Amino acid sequence: MNFIDKLSAAWTTNNSLLCVGLDPDLSRFPSHLQGQPDAIVTFCKAIIDATADLACAFKPQIAYFAALGAEAQLEQICHYLRNKYPHIPLVLDAKRGDIGATAHQYAREAFDRYGADAVTVNPYMGFDSVEPYMEWADRGVIVLCRTSNAGGSDLQFLDVGGKPLYQHVARLVAEKWNRNGQCALVVGATFPEELAQVRAIVGDMPLLVPGVGAQGGDVEATVRAGKTAGGAGMMINSSRAILYAAPQAGEDFAAAARRVAMETRDAINRFRG
Ligand SMILES: O=C(O)c1cc(=O)[nH]c(=O)n1[C@@H]1O[C@H](COP(=O)(O)O)[C@@H](O)[C@H]1O
Question: Does the predicted interface ipTM exceed a cut of 0.95?
Fold first, then answer.
């Protein structure tokens, strides 16, 4: 099953548009895991098990692993996800962008090494830097469009023929780059007006929408702006607000993550109809 079909099935099966981000930060781990050699894997597996019936996708952020030299642990976590929850799409957040030959290596890393169903990529270097990912026709290519950070406006709002650059990217991907129907776009939940603009340009193309939770994006505004006519079309990501929902001591971290994931999924669902 290709990425888009798998995502559509997960929206329905789990009645969820919530993407659970896996951004392991050792300094925020519960005290009983501090200093444990297998802390990253134990922590991420517990979060995955606690939220797998509430999520339409999982999104490990590669920098959180690479910074710790923990690529082997990321491999283990991806392997665990693919085997135990094969119906939930695995999105590798890598935001790569480089010349074609190098991009091919990044694609191998995402799709062959980690077995990701989809990967985030940066469009700044143009189509030949994104095309290598498309050789894996059953995988998703999720292109940055209107990112959730304030500084995204520095470039993404530049005027390109009377339209802001992010709209040009949305149109380019929807009309030219998406030859195999495998593309999606990143649009931040922190910018619901732009989210609505992108939705109007790209039809039912899936959108990865980070920025609810720790970044303060408004769930109602996000869902109303970004949903498709069918009330889906988005992977609304939350990472830190779910991962570190528990206070340092006290409530079990996985139970707390489940509680916040469920609240977030349900809050999203209230505005889908
Ligand atoms: O591509 C992304 O996932 C992404 C794009 C974007 O515009 N903004 C953004 O926050 N992200 C990622 O989404 C996650 C957001 O994490 P929280 O702010 O903790 O929910 C991080 O892993 C970011 O790297």
Answer: yes
